[in-house]
Amino acid sequence: MTNDFVFPTYFVSHGGGPWPFMKEQVGNTFDKLEASLKDIPRQIGATPKAALVISGPWEEPEFAVSAGAQPGMIYDYSGFPPHTYQIRYGAPGSPELAMRVRQLMEESGFPVRLDAQRGFDHGTFTMMYPIYPDASVPIVQLSMKRGSDPGLHMDVGRTLAPLRSEGVLILGSGLSYHNLRQFGPAGAMASRQFDDWLQQTLIGSDPRERRERLLHWEQAPSARSAHPHPDHLLPLMVAAGAAEDEEATCVYHEEDFFGGLTVSSFRFGKAGNQ
Fold first, then answer.
1. Which domains does the chain have, with CATH numbers?
2. Of all helices (H) and strands (E), which one includes residue 144?
């Protein structure tokens, strides 16, 4: 990795529950998603010194950043097989990166607290396990701020953009469709309509228009059916903000997820091997 290498950023649809650890139960449901995640190291072409994950399950009154050297696990799901509550993903944390994140954010006027106790939630470990199964890349997590302000989260992404040239991979982990009450065939139309809008917004719009469309995402077709609460969409805002002038690429797209849902993941910026 050369000194002028700049990592792309990602918004990843992370699937459902602890799926990578349930192969017997889920069969081939997540095969396309898994393949897309496993391909990220090839796309990047370099190993990051650390990853900064903005995870849909973590929302706080103010921004918080995980700062522990050896994060534990958070089993933030219910109704899954007993063994999924014994999962261990042993990646280290990075107190150094946590301090750097706090420095950048506070210099730009975003208050943020360090959380030395925060463990890896499912939005982090289920996504990172296929990407780096050996758990060799240190991980720091950044929460979202309660209030669901898309512009604020894009601005935070812009603030964190220097990390990309400091060896840090920024990953927003959510789901492009997240309505658990209509998960499956019942959500087919809403997920397809919202995904069509996402594709046009992220790939078919110039950077200025992209930001305006994201700011007003609630006006998109089926927006509130796709995201009754935007906790799984806001990580996209951070990833897009950290690469606001760069092109987006759809790196995962599926139209029969869980029996009918359309879901996607996106990369912002060029792959390292291009």
1. 9-177+228-268 (3.40.830.10)
2. strand 139-145
Contact 248, 203 (CB under 8 A): yes
Say what the pLDDT of residue 181 is. Answer: 80
Say what the alpha-carbon torsion angle 202, 208, 211, 213 is, to the nearest 10 degrees.
-70
> Mean pLDDT throughout 17-22?
94
Q: Rounded to whole angstroms, how far apart are CA atoms 265 and 39?
A: 12
Report yes or no on whether pTM surpasses 0.90: yes
The b/e string for 119-153 (b: 16+ C-beta within 10 A; e otherwise) is bbbbbbbbbbbbbbeebebbbbbbbbbeebbbebb
Q: What is the pLDDT of residues 66-115, one digit of tens each?
A: 999 999 999 999 999 999 999 999 999 999 999 999 999 999 999 999 99
* Structure tokens given for 83: 């063994």
In angstroms, the CA 249 to CA 266 distance is 5
Residue 241 structure tokens: 């903000």
- Cα dihedral sign, 270-264-58-71: negative
